[in-house]
Amino acid sequence: MRQKEISLTIQPIKSFDDDDLDHPVGSHDTPLRADAFDLTDDEKINKIEDHFREIMTVLGLDLNDDSLKGTPRRVAKMYVKEAFSGLNPDNRPTTRLFENKYNYDQMLVEKDITFFSHCEHHFVPIYGKIHVAYFSSGKVIGLSKINRFVQYFAKRPQVQERLTVQIGKELERVLGTTDVGVVVDANHMCVASRGVGDTNSKTGTAYFAGKFKDENVKREFLNYINAK
Questions:
Q1: What are 154-197's pLDDT values in tens digits?
Q2: Does the active-site annotation cover 110?
Q3: Catalytic residue (one of 119, 131, 151, 158)
Q4: CATH for 2-27+97-226?
Q5: Where are the domains of the chain?
Q6: pTM above 0.90, yes or no
Q7: Could you confirm whether 28 is annotated as catalytic?
Q8: Which contacts qualify for 222-228: CB closer than 8 Å, 24 or more apart?
Q9: 5 is catalytic
Q10: Does residue 121 have an active-site annotation?
Q11: CATH number of 41-87
């Protein structure tokens, strides 16, 4: 019951088309330089390896130690190939839609999608669950594709508000409908492991568009999320 009460108080993020938008996230696009992809992945890994080795050296770590000498390379590969692979548009999931042969006209919900991201302010993890719902406009998408879109946008330096909107906007584009809802429930290690050191708090954000702006539809979605 307590979790349900928390979920029902989540405030939706307004569409960026709203004239009265007053929100710290100025765009749902990840801020990238024009030359972001001039280097190949291997070139980026080599450069990051050099820079991270310098960081470790400045911190006073002995990179001749067997446990540490491979760390700069491992971190560089993790950044480019895993943790921030969603920055590269070549990794955007391909889309295939299917006819809604069963004429299913009710809400479709995929909940408890686990995600891992990184706070762009401190480069420490954000992790939690994402819940997605939509009404078909005549086409449906394979369930695994929803997970892949979530992971694509999560695997970049993020703020939770932007991540929520990016997933919602992408699903609208792919599905050809505005009837999309997204709820994100996340833990922020920049809050838990540093600063205030609060290990219990969570952050909730939501994106409601189309039919999901109706309070009854919104409540139905939130009830699905809390159903066991």
A1: 999 999 999 999 999 999 999 999 999 999 999 998 877 777 76
A2: no
A3: 119
A4: 3.30.1130.10
A5: 2-27+97-226, 41-87
A6: no
A7: no
A8: 222/4, 222/7, 222/8, 222/10, 222/183, 223/4, 224/107, 224/109, 224/111, 224/131, 224/133, 225/7, 225/109, 225/111, 225/131, 225/183, 226/3, 226/4, 226/7
A9: no
A10: yes
A11: 1.10.286.10
